[in-house]
Amino acid sequence: MRTKLILATLALLTATCAALGLFSHVAMSRYLTGVLDDGLERAAGRAGFRPGAAAGDNQGEGQPAPGRAGTDNGAGPRGNGSEYGQRPGSLTAHFEDGSLRRSTLVLEDGIAVPVSGPDLELLAEVDPDRGPEHIDLSGGRYRVDAFVSPAGPADGVLVTGLSTAQRDSTLASLDLTMVVLSLAGLLVTGVAGTVIIRRSLRPLDQLAAVATSVSKLPLASGEVEIPVRVPAAAARPGSEVGTVGLALNGMIDHVTNALRARQASEMKVRQFVADASHELRTPLTSIRGYAELVLLSEQVSPPGRSALERVDSESKRMSALVEDLLLLARLDEGQRGERADVDLTELIVEAVSDAQVSAPEYGWTLMLPDEPVVVSAVESELRQVLINLLSNAHKHTAPATRVEIGLQAGAAWTTLTVTDDGQGIDPDFIDSLFSRFSKADSARTGNTGSTGLGLAIVSALVTVNGGTIEVESKPGRTRFTVVLPLAGAVAV
Questions:
Q1: Which residues pair with 377 in a beta bridge?
Q2: What is the secondary structure of 337-366 as a DSSP string?
Q3: Most exposed residue of 218, 346, 440, 489, measured as fewest CB within 10 angstroms of its CB?
Q4: Quick one: DSSP state of residue 452?
Q5: Other C-beta atoms within 10 Å of 109: how many?
Q6: DSSP strands (E only) in 133-241
Q7: Is 24 within 8 Å of 179 (Cβ atoms)?
């Protein structure tokens, strides 16, 4: 915007200077040309022709005006132009019946000489009815006019001319002056305008800095406070920038209040979930215990046994859900174990061994480096990440699916991948895959009644350990990629 304002200002100033220069040039040219035309009439009068005089008022054909010497053959003796009353740069040519009677050209040094033959041919063509005009002679450009003798056309025609050199020099000086002044004005305006516009728009930089700071704040979740505001100097009413600053501060205040309300609501929900989970653990444990006791110690009918086994199965499933909710509640409250150096390679081997026992119909493949990979994390949390990822791989794919677990170590980060060749994940579900209670069992086979918390727990555990998790999926290939900081590296 600064550049556009400066360029617009300079463009307007350039147009103004050009218009003033053109007007000045035209006005001065007309004025100086008028002076030349007046000089032509006076020169004709000094040469014995008085424009507008009646017949008989002239001094007679071939008679010089007072104080003027003349010749009757146009090639008279050279003399000082002042003898003829004409100024330097003027010329006269008297024609009778198309023949030259006399001619005079006053040079710049005051010497009067006859007009050259080629110039006389051009002067002879000057028409008295056309009025003053410009012609180019051997000595330069002249303003000429023809005057008929007051005694009549038979008495001859006098052509007078004045050099336009002085007028042209004056116009050139005027043009040069206008150009220099315009360029100087443009330069001064450009520099001063840049300074003024920058100072005037400086508050916009403060507004942009505030908006940028707000855009970089993690506002998606958690307890959020927006500490930045537009400074008071840039948020004063009465100016456009100040009005925008006030509006931006009002918007930030509104967003802050909305975030506080959202955080309070989330905390209430989380507290309710945590309290409910704690309260449910004991009765669920009792239900499971009594169901197992009856199944082991009592003789019940087959329908009764089936019902008890169903109660036991559902109580186990609900217990798992409660444990997942408690885990997420603890993470939300920041209740975690101590971070330490963990051998990720060993954890992967143990997790895959357990998965081979629980799902032997799947093909499990390990792609591990020769050297141990040590990361900085909470061991129990990483173990839970591996268990959930491997469980997700075999619960939501068909038997005989091949699952490959890979590990690669870089300079400061290590990359863990879990890849299967199952049916893939519905593309519409990818964006909400790591959300809580998100289910898409229809996208992959083997619906086991998932609670939708497994991958949400994985994402939360990876994040609190300074890592990231991504997923890419298409039919025949689904890959989860977990990046974690190595031991000694700074987690971001």
A1: 340
A2: ---EEEEHHHHHHHHHHHHHHH-TTSEEEE
A3: 218
A4: S
A5: 8
A6: 133-137, 140-148, 157-163
A7: no
Residue 241: band (very low, low, confident or very high) from pLDDT cuts 50, 70, 90: confident
Q: State how beta strands 90-96 and 157-163 pair.
A: antiparallel
DSSP 79-115: EEGGGGT--TTEEEEEEETTEEEEEEEE-TTSEEEPP
Cβ distance 422 to 447 under 8 Å?
no
Percent helix, strand, coil in the chain (nearest 5)? 50, 20, 30
Report which residue type is found at 74.
G
Residue carrying structure tokens 């007028």: 167
What tokens appear for 196 in the block?
A: 């003024």
Q: Residue 182's pLDDT is what?
A: 92
At position 98, the amino acid (one-letter code) is G
pTM for this entry: 0.47
Side-chain-side CA neighbours of 313 within 13 Å: the count stands at 8
pLDDT surpasses 60 at 378: yes
| 3 state DSSP class of 226 | coil
Rounded-to-integer distance, Cα 18 and Cα 407, Å? 73
Closest CA to 175 of 14, 36, 23, 11: 23
Q: Is the pLDDT of residue 233 over 70?
A: yes
Which range among 13-17, 235-239, 309-313, 468-472 shows the weakest confidence by mean pLDDT?
235-239
What pLDDT was estimated at residue 64?
39
**Number of other CB atoms surrounding residue 49 within 10 Å:** 27
| First and final C-alpha spacing in the chain | 37
What tens digit of pLDDT does each residue of 105-163 get? 888 777 888 888 888 888 888 888 888 999 988 888 999 988 887 666 556 888 888 98
**How many Å apart are CA 451 and CA 439, to the nearest integer?**
7
State how far the Cα of 449 lies from the Cα of 308, in Å rounded to an integer: 19
Cα–Cα distance, 134 to 142 (Å, whole number): 6
The pLDDT of 287-309, averaged and rounded, is: 84
The amino acid present at 195, given as its one-letter code, is V
The 10s digit of each residue's pLDDT in 384-437 is 899 989 988 888 888 889 999 999 988 889 999 999 998 888 888 887 888 777
pLDDT of residue 222: 62
What Cα–Cα distance (Å) separates residue 19 from each residue in 23, 109, 178?
Answer: 6, 39, 11
The pair of three-digit structure tokens given for residue 21, joined into one six-digit string: 């220069």
